């Protein structure tokens, strides 16, 4: 077994994907390796503190790898979760200056699309801190091949691809609506990244067809950027109140109930890392409508697990139309969705991670 140190800076925000994906990844890895999870924050979720491998600033306030207990003060490898949250961390400096091998999982932060947000601030940070941090890593771990393509080799020429995982649910969808089509979109209310403006515009382009099919799209999520009212005004302006609906954020059992009562999951994102909400929906048997920005277009098409689109309203409306035209075949799409989701079980992901880390470390020793 390897001694792996996971470094994160998570505050436990309920609307942030890494709040769910990072603990699940670490939990899976702890079944095959010796793990120490150091969350460089004092605001982690209470439930994390009961985990035997979880530690944070309240225990180790120095925020230094060298102050951690043996053998994790000299681990076989460090896995850094996310990228820019290391800006104020002393650990980033230790990794750059020291000889501790590490990889970085940026979770979408290095893509060209993500770099356009707060572009000036990120450009300066990259020049003075982060390019060296990325280049000194043994590798960058991307969640999908598309994330790597959208990020490129300019950060680090060495990369690996290991996706997010899911817990396979005990209950899956067996029946679909007989009096219409119920679509759902679950995620933060961030119109630009999540492509919600594109979705509303697409619905406007085929409003009559959606009405005829009695199709509704319920958008669930927290209003992180204060843009919910703007979206609602857009829906009213385009007279889509009977088609596009809004719902508060859903979690846990409420989210499961929402998924099982829906027919199709919609993700019109302009960019993502590897969206857990999407692979969770697939695991419940929901066919999906997803854009290229979801980073899962290729596998969705390969498995025929739904309908895909470019990141524009016209292409999304065509995907919606294909969904309407193929609704009678939903059980076939359901089976395909479940089959696709099986490759993302956390057990398989942990095994793949172990193999890739061994390969990276062996290559480094041969230099």
Bulk shape: globular
- With strands numbered from the N-terminus, the spatial order across the biggest sheet is 3-2-1-4-5-6-7
Helices and strands: which structural class? alpha/beta
N-to-C SSE string, H for helix and E for strand: EHEEEHEHHEHEEHHHEHEHEHEHEHHH
Low-pLDDT windows of residues: none
The chain-level mean pLDDT equals 94
The number of helical segments is 15
Instruction: State the oligomer.
Output: single chain
Compute the number of strand runs: 13
Beta-strand percent range = 15-25%
Radius of gyration: 21 Å
- The N- and C-terminal alpha carbons lie at a distance of 23 Å
Q: Describe the biggest sheet?
A: 7 strands, parallel
**Percent helix among the residues?**
40-55%
Protein topology:
Layout: E1 3-8, H1 18-29, E2 34-39, E3 54-56, E4 77-81, H2 90-97, E5 102-105, H3 112-115, H4 119-135, E6 139-142, H5 145-151, E7 159-161, E8 181-186, H6 191-194, H7 196-205, H8 207-212, E9 215-220, H9 228-237, E10 244-247, H10 252-260, E11 264-267, H11 276-283, E12 288-291, H12 297-303, E13 306-309, H13 313-325, H14 330-341, H15 346-365
Parallel strand pairs: 1-2, 1-4, 2-3, 4-5, 5-6, 6-7, 8-9, 8-11, 9-10, 11-12, 12-13
Helix pairs in contact: 1-15, 7-13, 11-14
Entry summary:
This protein has about 375 residues and is an alpha/beta fold. The chain has helices at about 20-30, 90-95, 110-115, 120-135, 145-150, 190-195, 195-205, 205-210, 230-235, 250-260, 275-285, 295-305, 315-325, 330-340, 345-365, and strands at about 5-10, 35-40, 55, 75-80, 100-105, 140, 160, 180-185, 215-220, 245, 265, 290, 305-310. Helices cover about 40% and strands about 15% of the residues.
